[in-house]
Design brief:
heterodimer, A: 432 residues, Alpha-Beta Plaits, six-stranded antiparallel sheet, 12 helices, B: alpha/beta, Rossmann fold, seven-stranded parallel sheet, 7 strands, binds flavin-adenine dinucleotide, binds NADP nicotinamide-adenine-dinucleotide phosphate
Chain lengths: 432, 244
């Protein structure tokens, strides 16, 4: 099977029967007693898009535009279309996705099913806030039209519903008007976690996009130091994005280790570009720096990697995140790409949506077996004790208890699951 | 009004759709002929948004005579490019004893194509310019036990086009025979895929390029030319023993 069939973290080796659907008119074959799951671009890290022992409905050929109202910025399209393809069509006409995650290689169906968030959560909420309506195929062969008015409960369950409510065939989404293809803003170094929170509080009211990279190897007085970015869409020219690269093979030993990690983080923090106001970026460099390197996930070697992403409510955020960063730095694990973002108060309709007011920390860990899973369990415990939760799209090992405690609407959600749909993620958490 | 005009027959095919997206992005006018009207309309809407100057839908079913398509076309006017893409992979085992299956396979993969090539080739000649591009297959290069009904129908198409190309030489009309190798499309959904398989987008880029270059025959991806040469060179006494 291709690398795409194992989750972006490359931890799993599932056995799946794949049906590639040609378009939104094709009726998948549902056999009695079997379980099914839709898959988009496999950009989720763990097992939410994996269905070991079951069937996959591959939606990558559900890639037709249906209608675009260039006055209102309303786009209807099949669910397998990627945000990248949408940007290619709509940006020249002045429109951009209202919310985008850190890669443009995600499908609309995947973005809805994980209710993804971006650097503008404090301003725009999550992807689900901009879904006007969607068409959902259930295993009884009938299509449900879902929106805030029609089948609202199923609509709420499907947004952030991890593919468990059926197959999203198409959706109508609202885009945002933008001034142009450039981004304009500031990069600002901060020396510790307290400075991060100060910068965030000062910037959020004025900037639509805010995010921070943290040096997860720094400790002591420098704990939580990093680089803060704030930006907005802008007209005019922007520096061309750097040339695309590609990792053709998986190195037998990952070049990412404690030493290279420390060196990278230190250099990244001190690089001249880390402190530059009135900066301009090309939209690709600002939103999707990692998309430049195709198959960058192979960098972690044949054993794959975990990603950890948690949310901590505002009152506990400082203390809990400091505790996590201290633990990570002490472990010598952690990664180049630790990200901090403070969410806002806009709630999407999604029952299982991850974003909520508070601060989120996301980072990768090369898979070093028990050492890594032990660290992940400690981080999970801190998040949970602080009243937080983990993000399913990034998860490969959270406990059933933290899933239940982190997502209080789980009981309501369960009633909307399609009886023929399931995933490795769901079975892991339902039966553990 | 100087946009490129393209007629695609079998417009719902994955390979044809990928070609259509390339032409749409260049602002071409597209005429889509398909037997499945809702699918055809959905593809037309997509292509309009992707930049096509205009898209018209026509009905064509390879099981029926082509006259109604030709009549519809006479109202719209002849295109610069005709791409004949429809086809289907017959159940080889069934064709080995059921003659109606054999006839059906030939109707869809050979006879309907020859009818269209005859009538549209003539219309292009009358117009004095254009390209008639037809999707054949590497399977037509040598009959194999596993799919010689399909393969021989594609071989008929290739031989026919070779003659037509000669006849139309000097008329301003080029005839292109397209021979794809294994392509990952709905037609081949039940096959296990390996490194020999290509995506329809790759094949489509090759088709559009070959039309522009006025090629006569193109293998896609290009290396199939050499592989098929080797396969054709295998002497019959040896070939008959092989299981391909
Ligand atoms: C580099 C990188 C950066 C990222 N940054 C962010 C970020 O900033 N914010 C964020 O929120 N996420 C982020 N992610 C995660 C990513 O946005 C989500 O995992 C997203 O869901 C992936 O979309 P996909 O099309 O690949 O879906 P898949 O991974 O294929 O599937 C994800 C889920 O969606 C379901 N699904 C997919 N299509 C359908 C459908 N048609 N109908 C029903 N269910 C469906 C699947 O069943 C599965 O449960 C990032 C991922 C990467 C690799
Ligand atoms: N895939 C390969 O490996 C491969 C290799 C070499 C050559 N080819 C050739 O490439 C061409 C395109 O095929 P594809 O791979 O793109 O497969 P595809 O997506 O399955 O397309 C096949 C097309 O043929 C149409 N069709 C079938 N029977 C028809 C009929 N009776 N009347 C009208 N249209 C009919 C189908 O219409 P519906 O949508 O209505 O079903 C569909 O549009 C075919 O000629 C095929 O032989 C394919």
């Amino acid at each position: 099977m291709s690398a795409a069939a194992q989750g972006w973290g490359r931890l799993l080796h599932p056995r799946e029967a794949v049906q590639t659907l040609r378009d939104r008119f094709e009726q998948p074959r549902f056999a009695p007693g079997e379980h099914y799951l839709a898959r988009g671009q496999s950009r989720s890290y763990g097992d939410v898009a994996v269905n070991d022992g079951g069937h996959i409905l591959d939606t990558r050929r559900l890639d037709r535009f249906i209608a675009f109202d260039a006055q209102q910025g309303l786009l209807e399209c099949e669910a397998g279309l990627t945000l990248g393809e949408i940007i290619a069509l709509c940006l020249p006409q002045g429109w951009f996705p209202a919310v985008t995650p850190g890669t443009q290689q995600v499908s609309v169906g995947g973005a809805i099913a994980c209710d993804v968030h971006g650097k503008n959560h404090h301003r725009a909420g999550s992807f689900g806030c901009h879904v006007q309506s969607l068409k959902l195929l259930r295993s009884d062969g009938r299509v449900r039209h879902c929106s805030a008015q029609e089948n609202p409960a199923l609509f709420a369950a499907t947004i952030g519903g991890l593919g468990l409510t059926g197959l999203i065939l198409s959706a109508c989404i609202r885009l945002q008007r933008v001034a142009g293809a450039a981004m304009q803003g500031d990069s600002l170094r901060f020396a510790n976690l307290a400075e991060y929170f100060a910068l965030e509080a000062e910037s959020a009211p004025h900037w639509p996009y805010t995010v921070a990279w943290v040096d997860c190897s720094a400790r002591g007085a420098a704990l939580g130091r990093g680089v803060f970015e704030r930006a907005r869409h802008a007209a005019g020219a922007a520096p061309a994005p750097p040339r695309a690269l590609r990792l053709f093979f998986t190195p037998p030993l990952s070049p990412l280790n404690a030493l290279s990690l420390r060196a990278f983080n230190t250099l990244y923090y001190h690089r001249p570009g880390a402190q530059r106001s009135a900066q301009r970026w090309h939209w690709q460099s600002f939103f999707y720096p990692l998309d430049r390197i195709a198959h960058w996930n192979r960098l972690y070697g044949p054993r794959g990697f975990y990603q950890f992403q948690c949310l901590v409510p505002p009152a506990q955020a400082r203390a809990a995140i400091a505790q996590m960063l201290e633990l990570i730095a002490a472990s010598g694990q952690g990664s180049f790409l630790a990200v901090l973002k403070t969410f806002g108060g806009l709630r999407s309709p999604g029952l299982l949506s991850f974003p909520a007011p508070g601060t989120t920390l996301a980072l990768d860990f090369a898979n070093r077996g028990a050492r890594t899973t032990a660290l992940l369990a400690q981080l999970e415990a801190i998040a949970l004790a602080a009243g937080g939760r983990l993000y399913a799209a990034k998860d490969a090992c959270m406990s059933a208890e933290s899933f239940r405690r982190g997502y209080p609407a789980l009981g309501d959600f369960t009633q909307h699951i399609d009886p023929a749909f399931s995933s490795s993620f769901w079975r892991r958490l339902e039966h553990s | 009004m100087n946009e490129l005009r393209v007629l695609i027959i079998g417009a719902t095919s994955a390979i044809a759709q990928a070609c259509a997206r390339i032409w749409a992005a260049r602002g071409a006018q597209l005429l889509l002929a398909a037997r499945d009207a809702p699918r055809g309309e959905a593809i037309a809407a997509d292509l309009r948004l992707r930049g096509a100057a205009a898209v018209h839908c026509l009905r064509y079913d390879a099981g029926l005579p082509p006259q109604s398509l030709l009549d519809a076309l006479s109202g719209i006017g002849m295109p610069d490019i005709v791409l004949i893409a429809h086809g289907s992979l017959p159940d080889q085992a069934r064709c080995e004893h059921a003659l109606e299956a054999l006839h059906e396979a030939y109707r869809i993969n050979a006879l309907s194509v020859l009818e269209l090539a005859t009538l549209l080739g003539e219309a292009l000649r009358a117009q004095g310019h254009g390209t008639l591009a037809v999707i054949g297959s590497v399977a037509g290069d040598r009959g194999r036990a596993s799919n010689y009904v399909y393969g021989s129908a594609k071989a008929a198409v290739a031989a026919f086009l070779s003659g037509l190309r000669q006849r139309l030489h000097g008329s301003g009309v080029n005839v292109l025979t397209i021979k794809p190798g294994f392509v990952d499309t709905p037609m081949t959904r039940d096959f296990a895929k390996n490194a020999l398989w290509a995506q329809p987008e790759t094949i489509a880029a090759g088709i559009v390029r070959a039309i522009e270059q006025g090629r006569a025959v193109v293998y896609l991806p290009g290396w199939w030319r050499w592989l098929m040469l080797l396969i054709r060179l295998i002497p019959e006494p040896l070939f008959r023993r092989l299981r391909l």
